[in-house]
Structure formats: structure tokens, C-alpha cells
């Protein structure tokens, strides 16, 4: 199991285009963040197929994490911490859920 303490280092590598690091971040956080997506979609979405909405929101969020990771590194004035990475990914997930709710 990957330690959460190295999440900042992993996200730094992701920001530099490291696909293996992205896979490790995904393996570490996908289950808890999918739970957040499911709960959020249930409360925010009027869509009939909430499972499909949750899956799409999760896919969108992880796509955004990969695409926007360089932005996280550029905006940081210090080495990334695990807290920085988790807060940033949480923001991506909640933004994705909100976008999915607006589309639905």
C-alpha cells in the first residue's frame, strides 16, 4: 500500500507527466474519492441514472487531475505536501460533480 505521506511527491511527478505516478495516485485515492462522488451525485443530481452520472463525474475528475496537474505544481511556492494534493484533488472531484449536476 502506498503511504499517503508520499502523495505530494507523487503529484509532483504526475505534474511532470509521470504516468506511473498517476496510476499510483489513482490506486491510492480512487476508492475514497469515488465514494465522495457517489454521495455528492445523490444529493446534487436530479438525473435518473445516478450511477452513470457518478461514473462520468469520476472519469471527468481523474481526467482533470491528469490534465491540470502541471497547474498545481506551477501555483505552489513550496514542495507539494500530501495535504496540498488531497485538497486539490478534492476540488477537482467536487467541481466535476457540480458540472455533472448542471449537465443533468
How would you portray this structure in words?
The longest helix has 26 residues. It contains 4 helices and no strands. The mean pLDDT is 87. The protein has one domain: RNA polymerase sigma factor, region 2, helix turn helix motif (Rna Polymerase Sigma Factor, Chain: A), CATH 1.10.1740. The radius of gyration is 14 Å and the shape is elongated. The chain has 104 residues and is mostly helical. Helix 1 crosses helix 2 and helix 2 packs across helix 3. This is RNA polymerase sigma-70 factor, ECF subfamily. It comes from Lentzea flaviverrucosa.
Shape: elongated
CATH names the topology as Rna Polymerase Sigma Factor, Chain: A
The level 1 CATH classification is Mainly Alpha
Number of structural units classed as domains:
1
CATH H-level superfamily: RNA polymerase sigma factor, region 2, helix turn helix motif
Q: What is the average of the pLDDT values?
A: 87
Distance between the termini: 36 Å
Secondary structure tally: strands? 0
- What is the structural class? mainly alpha
Low-confidence stretches: none
Helical content stands at over 70%
What is the CATH architecture descriptor?
A: Orthogonal Bundle
Amino acid at each position: 500500500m502506498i503511504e499517503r505521506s508520499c502523495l505530494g511527491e507523487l503529484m509532483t511527478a504526475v505534474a511532470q507527466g509521470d504516468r506511473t505516478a498517476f496510476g499510483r495516485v489513482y490506486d491510492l485515492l480512487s476508492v475514497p474519492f469515488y465514494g465522495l462522488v457517489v454521495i455528492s451525485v445523490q444529493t446534487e443530481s436530479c438525473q435518473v441514472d445516478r450511477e452513470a452520472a457518478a461514473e462520468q463525474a469520476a472519469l471527468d475528475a481523474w481526467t482533470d487531475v491528469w490534465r491540470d496537474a502541471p497547474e498545481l505544481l506551477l501555483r505552489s511556492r513550496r514542495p507539494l505536501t500530501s495535504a496540498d494534493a488531497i485538497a486539490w484533488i478534492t476540488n477537482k472531484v467536487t467541481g466535476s460533480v457540480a458540472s455533472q449536476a448542471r449537465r443533468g
